[in-house]
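Review form for a predicted model. The reviewer records the input and the model, then writes brief findings.
Reviewer: anonymous (R2)
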Amino acid sequence: MAALLTVLVHQPPYTVVLIVPTGVGASIGGYAGDAMPVARAIAQVSDRLITHPNVLNGAQLYWPLANTSYVEGYALDKFASTCWGLRPVRQNKVGLILDRAIEPELRLRHLQAAEATRATLGLNLTDCTVTDASLEVQLRIAPSGASWGTIGNTGSLLRAAETLIDRAGAEAIAIVARFPDDTDSEILQNYRHGKGVDPLAGAEAVISHLIVRTFKIPAAHAPALMPLPADPDVSPRAAAEELGYTFLPCVLVGLSRAPQFIISKDNYTPSPQDIWAEQVDAVVVPASACGGSAVMSFSSLGVRVVAVEENKTKMEVSPESLGIKAIRVNSYLEALGFLVTHRAGINPDSLRPTLSSLNCLSVNRDQS
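Model under review:
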C-alpha cells in the first residue's frame, strides 16, 4: 500500500510595518491615537506588526496587541536601515522623568496616573525623577505645515535619564515635559476640530529621539498641559485628549512591552524571537508621506510598500517621486485586502473579474 507523503512547508512569520509620520497632519493617525483601529485590523492579518508611538498613543486610551511591537521613530529608522534589531520582551522596567517646569498639582496628577498603572494594570515602574532644570520646550510650525520643536535644556533631560538607568535599573524611559499652554491658538483650535496638524507631535519626537539615540533603550513622551476649556465641537479624532489631566497611561502601557534593541549582529546570542528588517514583508504608509528614512530603507530591501491615498498629509512626497515601487491603494480597507492576498501568496489580479492573457516571449538566439 502506497504511503501518503505530506510535505509541510515552513512559512516565516508575516511581518508588517505601519507608519504614520508624526506632526504632518495625517487625516488618519494625525490625532489622538486615531490610527489604533488601523493597527488593530492589520494586527489581525499579520503575525507580527511593528509600529510607533504616534499610532498607538491615545492619551488615556490604549489597546493591548500581543503581536505588536511599539518602536520609537528613531529606533524604527535604525531598524529599517538594518543597523538595529528588535528583541521582544515580557515586561520592561519603566522609568519616569518629570519636567521641573510642571506645576505641583499637575505633577501630582501625573504621579497618580503612574501609580494607577502599577496598581490596576500591573506595570513595572521604577522610581521617578524630576529634571534638575526646566526643559523649556518650544513649539514651531515649518513652512510645509508640519510641526516641530526645540528643547532648551537637553543636558537636564539626559542627566535624568542616566539617573534612572544607572540607579533604578530602568529598561525604558517615559518622559513628561511641560508644554506651552496656547489655548487661543488657531492651530490648536483647528486640531481640536479635526482640521489641522497636531502642534505638539514634532517636539515630542525630538524629545524621544534624544533619549533613544543616546541610551539605545525604548522611550516615549507624554506632554503636560493644563486641561482645556470644554468644547462641544471637538472632533471625535481629537477627543481622547480631552478626557483628563494626563496623556501618560498609553505611553506607560506601550513602553512596558516595547522590544529592546539589538545594536549589532556581532557577538550576540540570537533568539528565534529576534526581528530584523530583512524579515519585513510589507510597510504601509500614507501615499503623500513616503520621504521618511524608514520607508526608503525598506524599499531598498525590496519590502512591498503599500501607499494609502485616502490618508492625506501636509507632505507632498509620493513614492514615484523617489523611485519607490509601491502598491497604491485607496484606503486602509483596501490595504488590508492586499496584505491578506500577499500573505497567502495570491496574485491580487486573480481576484478581479478580468485577467489578461500571458505574453509569449520569443527567444533571442544571440543570448549566451
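Findings: The mean pLDDT is 91.
Further findings: Residues 33 and 57 are 5 Å apart (CA to CA).
Recommendation: see findings above.
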